[in-house]
Fold this sequence. Notes:
Elements: E1 12-15, E2 18-21, H1 32-36, E3 39-41, E4 44-49, E5 52-56, H2 58-71, H3 80-93, E6 99-107, E7 121-128, E8 142-146, H4 167-179, E9 184-188, E10 194-196, E11 201-206, E12 209-212, H5 223-234, E13 238-241, H6 246-251, E14 254-259, E15 263-272, E16 281-284, H7 292-305, E17 316-318
Parallel strand pairs: 8-9, 8-15, 12-13
Antiparallel strand pairs: 1-2, 1-7, 3-6, 4-5, 4-6, 5-17, 6-7, 9-10, 11-12, 11-14, 14-15, 15-16
This protein binds 4'-deoxy-4'-aminopyridoxal-5'-phosphate.
Amino acid sequence: MFNTTHFPKALKYWHEGKFYVWSDAHVHPMAHALHYGSSVLEGIRAYSTARGTAIFRLNEHIDRFLYSAAVAKMNFPYTKEDIIRVIKLTLKENKLESAYIRPMMFYSYGNLGLVPKFCSVELVVATWEWGAYLGEKSVNGVSVCIVSWRRLHHSQLDMKAKLGGAYIQSTICGLETRAKGYDEAIFLNLEGNVAEGPGENIFIVKDGVLKTNDTSESILEGITRTSLVEMAKDEGYKMVIGPISREEFFAADEVFFSGTAVEVTPIIRVTDGSDPAGPKKEYVIGSGRVGETTRRLRQMFKEVVTGQIRKYEKWITFLEG
Ligand code: PMP
């Protein structure tokens, strides 16, 4: 019943101390998280390198995972070291050299009141092979649409946490934009500035200066984003952290998404659909082609995650050793 068509190379997943064959699922349909999104998650990538499999910024991802679990007021017996051990075991069990890694913790079966008083908190770790998140053609740039729904505000929910339920907004807007023929959605925040994509942060480039926003703009503080900020500064780029207005976005020379799944993905066209009743205007970003800065940072990111730049080896955990 559960095949691996959209989970290439997934053999087994880990759940509460045991490995299960991928097609063997056993979570009860009355599990709390299925109804209310009461789960926390991470998305991590491991890369095949000359020195074996390397997991990118594993520590930071697990710190964020534990932060999310604390935000969701979860009680669980796992330490950071336990979770790291399970991730490594799961990669090995699936014989994967490069992979997407999904740790997820959720309120499981117990009761269905909104307060999960009698629900156990359970940990799952799964890995599979995941190529370009927005499709193979995304290397040449994607088209995005600014949706009219504003990003959940950081005064409404802790947007620094990866909370399962909060992703319903990403899912709805992702579906809406794809139905209209765009590759991805962009959210404005309540202040009217550009916030982020459904699962991606945003950088703009103007006259050689890079700009991205921070958590004061209702975004997830992406680990890819933080890495790129440091790398770009090291390379001598001027980097501004601050609100990105819609006008700045439209007038940028280059725009790109950053994230574990999308890595560095150029954005070459944007449609402003922020006013549901108003006309939709399309803008071409810069030349409409992948820009020089995007290209350079994308290449550098590839080298960093595959352990080819010594300075950033501090961000890599090798599977063996
Ligand atoms: N924003 C959101 C809402 C996300 O889900 C993600 C993916 N985790 C990102 C940004 C990018 O974060 P990261 O670079 O840590 O993957």
